[in-house]
Sequence to fold (229 residues):
Amino acid sequence: MFVLFQKEYLDVILVPAGLLVIFGYHLFLLHKYLHQPLRTAMGCENKDKKVWVDRIMQADKKEVQTALSVISSSISASIYLATISLTLCSLIGAWIANSRNNFVPNEIIYGDTRPIIISIKYICLLSSFLLAFSFFVQSARRFVHVNYLISTPDRGTIYLKSKVEKQVTRGGEFWSLGLRALYLALSLLLWFFGPIPMFASSIFLVIIFYLHDLEKLEGDQKGGYLVRV
Fold:
């Protein structure tokens, strides 16, 4: 009876704990991004994008064609991942409609295997892929707008330049959010094998995120620049 009680309530303890670790880390990252952007990878990438926009807005027609090719590649990547996310949503929806059973045998799952828990797992996974689809679509939308702005004949105005910088930055932010939604879906997918793999994957993802997201900067004594190391 005690073992049965442990297995039933393991999902109640470990799954919210894993989600809390992931969302808590991203709140910490958001605070860093808003107040110390150059301490984050996204902030440094945004700075690089602004330099790129400055150069492109003053370039000739040949270099503008190169810039449009770069933006087109970003649009294609966003649409590709959005299509994958939507396809996975359709497959999960079809699976829910036809079967409420877990695709993993209950005998190897150390956790709650009731039908209602299985349904919650599918709904959470479906929601993650829907979020990823929405973010990637928004990213593609921003990059399409950048295409129009860069191809405008009078590209040298400060107003137009600031709009291009904003749209490029927003497109990159939505791209990053879409990837994070896919990472969350990966963690939720492991929940089908039990709450312990889900919690362990959440801790592992946060460690990887921390090593990737935070940048160490050192000042250049000669030129006064900040250098990523």
Q: What stands out?
A: The first strand starts at residue 217 and ends at 219.
